[in-house]
Structures are given as structure tokens and as C-alpha cells.
Amino acid sequence: MRGQILDLQEYLPINTAERMLLLIQSKNLLLKITKHRKSKFGDYRPPQGKVSHHTITVNGTLNPFAFLITFLHEFAHLQIQEVYGRKAAPHGQEWKTAFALLLHNELRNSSFPVDLVPSIKKYILNPKASTFSDTKLYEALRRHDKDIEFKSPFLKTLFDDSIFKLGKKTFTRGKLQRTRYLCKEVNTGKLYLVHQNAEVIPL
Asked: How far apart are CA 143 and CA 160, in angstroms?
């Protein structure tokens, strides 16, 4: 067990690895730490077919606090899957309650630095389907990133009509619609709503 804790400590905040390992060992769960993925921070897959275990993946390039929140986000999905199966909405009230309780426990254990605590406390009141969607929390978490290699500018930092790349597609930035920009794909002319905090590559 000691070796497993040391492995997890590479990705998690100080003094949290043992608690997270206990969560993993309490379930038939496989945790996979992946390379950087811009499309998502993590995901959860229930047992299906020949796979008898739950699977959670988390980007290994996340800073420790983002990694912890992402893992707990996905672990809450596992908890809801075990109790409700497909009867509960993926990010419905059952999931919100489970996730909030997991985050609250880590707040009580002082797992987060003081600058993140206000944003997390506010987030707990109504957790969103993606940490990415909570502008205040995402920006606060991003300040703790160390690997500049993975830091791309937010879409909101560009000017209107700027051309940028997101994934394999190239877009022109349009006007802001609440929290998303109306963007036109250059090759097809199709319109997409892209979140203001999307990490993009300016061209």
C-alpha cells in the first residue's frame, strides 16, 4: 500500500493520497492517469461487457488541486452509478450532492490552499457538470499550473474576428453569448458556441 500512496502523491496535494487510495480500494475501481487531453480533464466508465470494474481516468498533467477535484467529480459518478444505475441524471441532484460531500470532506481536511477555498465553497453550492464551466474556480485553479507547455490562452482573451484553432478545427471568434462565443468554422461556415474559457491556439 505504501508504494501506491507514493505513486499517487506525485499527482495529488500533500496529505491526500492515502484518503484517495482508500476510496479506490473501497470499490472495484481502476484509476488510469492519462496524458494531456484538451477535450476533458477526466471521465468515468461503469462496468460493462467483459469489463467487471469501474474505470476512472484523470489527466496526469493537471495541477494537484485540479487533479483532486477531477478525481472526486468522477468518483461521485461511480457512487451514483452503484446506487441508482441509469435512473439518475449524469449531473443531476444525486450527483451534485455526492460530489459536494466529497469536496466538503477535503475542505475540512485542509486539502486546498486558502486562495482556492472561497471558489470551492461557492462551487459546492451547485456543482457544474464541468469545472471548466465555473469561470471563477477554473481561473483560480489555473493559477496553480506549473507546466507552461500546457497553458494555452483562453478564447476570451482574443479579439473579435480573431482566428484560432480548437482541436483539429479552425474558427473565427464572434460575439459573446452569455458565457460562450459564437464562432464560425473557417472551412464549413458552420456556427458553434464555444465556452469563453476554452483553451485555444491563436493563428
From this structure: 25
